[in-house]
Structures are given as structure tokens and as C-alpha cells.
Design brief:
The protein has 156 residues and is mostly beta strands. The protein has a single domain, classed as Macroglobulin (MG2) domain (Immunoglobulin-like, Sandwich), CATH 2.60.40.1930. It is built from 1 helix and 10 strands. It binds copper (II) ion (CU). The site of copper (II) ion has 5 residues, from loops. Copper (II) ion (CU) binds next to loops.
Length: 156
């Protein structure tokens, strides 16, 4: 009897019915970023206060959305502690893959002030691999320097 069950199961295995579910048949499988890092849930308009609480950064536009492999374009709005738009600041965006210990080439991307006060665009920064990306935005207004880190999973 047992022998028969094994035989039957072997036959089913060949048909991929006895083992794990095969989910390669559709296009949904994506990179699993695991739980080792705290990953932000992407949402347009999401905000982060910089580490020393000097500034608040709003991610007001992103393409692709959510961030993914390839060239990414972000628009951010930066305010100071009094919620005033921060004009004439120096903005630097630095992508980094913590699991692999590498960033991008070039390593940093500058924010360019837009026509809207306190709003900057960062264009064509490449996320080169699927996995976890820590995207640090440094804000320097010559009297204060502070940064915030956005962490996203590029699913590929
Ligand atoms: Cu990598």
C-alpha cells in the first residue's frame, strides 16, 4: 500500500502536483526583500523628519511609483522646524544597498530647485538591482545639515 502511495506521489511530482506549488506560471513573483530591514510603505506625500529634527521632507512625486529598478525621478518638498519652505538648500540623494554594501555610480545625486519654493527634483538616479535600497537625502542650508533615510524594496 505504502509503495503504491509513493508511486502515485512520484507520478504526481512529475506533474508538479505533489510538491510545492509552482507559481512561476504567472508574472507575479517578485523579489522578496525579507524582514531584516524595516521597509517603508511607499505612499505619495509620505513624510520623514530628518534625524536631528531640523527638517521635514515630503516625497511629493516619484517615478516609477513605488521606486523600482531603473532610473528614478523624485520630487521632494522640504520645510524647516517652523514649517517654512526651505529655499536655497543643498540637497543630496545617496542610494545604498545595505545587504550588498554598495551604492550607485555616481554615488550621489543633487536636488535641483523647482519653481515651487522649497521643492527640489532629483532626476535619473538608478536603482541597479532588485532588493532593499536605503535612499538617504541630505539637506544642507549652510547653518544646518541633516538627513533622512527612505527604505524601499525594488521588486524588479
Ligand atoms: Cu546590490
Amino acid at each position: 500500500m505504502l509503495y503504491r502511495i509513493i508511486l502515485l506521489c512520484s507520478a504526481l511530482l512529475l506533474m508538479n502536483a505533489c510538491g510545492k506549488e509552482d507559481d512561476n506560471s504567472d508574472n507575479t513573483p517578485m523579489h522578496n526583500c525579507g524582514t531584516a530591514y524595516s521597509i517603508d510603505t511607499f505612499k505619495l506625500g509620505m513624510q520623514k523628519t530628518t534625524q536631528n529634527e531640523h527638517f521635514t521632507i515630503t516625497l511629493s512625486a516619484a517615478s516609477p511609483a513605488p521606486p523600482d529598478i531603473g532610473d528614478n525621478n523624485w520630487t521632494i518638498a522640504v520645510v524647516d522646524q517652523s514649517s517654512n519652505a526651505l529655499e536655497s538648500a543643498s540637497i543630496t540623494l545617496t542610494p545604498f544597498m545595505p545587504e550588498h554594501g554598495h551604492g550607485t555610480s555616481p554615488a550621489d545625486f543633487n536636488g535641483v530647485a523647482t519653481d515651487t519654493a522649497g521643492t527640489y527634483s532629483i532626476e535619473d538616479f538608478p536603482l541597479t538591482m532588485s532588493g532593499i535600497w536605503q535612499i538617504t537625502i541630505n539637506v544642507d542650508n549652510s547653518s544646518k545639515n541633516d538627513d533622512a533615510v527612505f527604505t524601499f524594496c525594488a521588486e524588479g
